[in-house]
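Final report, Chapter 2: Outcomes

The project's central promise was a pipeline that accepts a single protein chain and returns its three-dimensional structure in a standardized token representation, suitable for archiving and comparison. That pipeline is now operational. To close this chapter, we reproduce one record exactly as it appears in the project archive, with the input sequence first and the structure output second.
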Amino acid sequence: MNSARTKQPIGAHVSISGSIDLAIGRGEELGCTAIQIFTKNANQWSGKPITPQSVEAFKTAWKASSIGPIIAHDSYLINLAAPDDEKWVKSKVAFIDELNRCAQLGLSDLVMHPGSHLTTGETVGIERVADAFREIFQEAPPTVRVLIEITAGQGSNLGYKFEHLATIMEKVPAGNFGICFDTCHALAAGYDLTTAEGYRSVMNEFDRIIGCDKIKAFHINDSKKGLGSRVDRHEQLGEGAVGVEGFRALMQDQRFFNVPKVLETPKGDDNSLDLRNIALLRSLAGEK
């Protein structure tokens, strides 16, 4: 591991196309000190098993790299709030598989969206998620933590209020939980991150309801839509409704120095936009 590990863990979501170990090199090409990956095709319920050879290649590449934390994101198809029993069971099985894949690769954190209640309402939807997690954690590998992501609240999506996240965790006391804080989603949900003062106020509220120590990852995205829009559309940093000052406040918050911060914004030709955004974050953090 090289000296890049002394920097904040900053990076991007990178592709596993071709072979999962190739994600490491792709992250290094961007100057990442943290990355996020899918462990399989995110638009499929199941993926090919990860072979021992793939696990070894991944771990070897990771160990030799400048990449620190690697977090995984689950499939977009999973909905632990689904009112339909068949979809709900399928989602639980798929999520346990995601956790096991992370354990194989030595990944300690899996990001997930709490789900959509569709027509049943938020209270019922949250209870459905909690019921699912009570079962999931009976089978889950103990080495993998579930990071519930803040959402924009688009449609019937749960998780756009800090209270939603707190309630899910409170209802599953045996759960191994953390939070993934998405800046685009939080702003779209109505949390004003546009100024240093606004950022401090939001984090004070989060600390009161959940506790800032529970934030184990950040998705660093600007928002195409405005404060409280409830619309999930990512924008390049500094070009959307969050703006540079909100990101400056986050990057200079020493409480989160060691928390991975990954981009989920369009990469641009030859990854030019990722490179620009990572450079901006390092500049805002006061790093060279």
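Archive annotation: The radius of gyration is 18 Å.
This record, like all others produced under the grant, will remain available to the consortium after the project formally closes.
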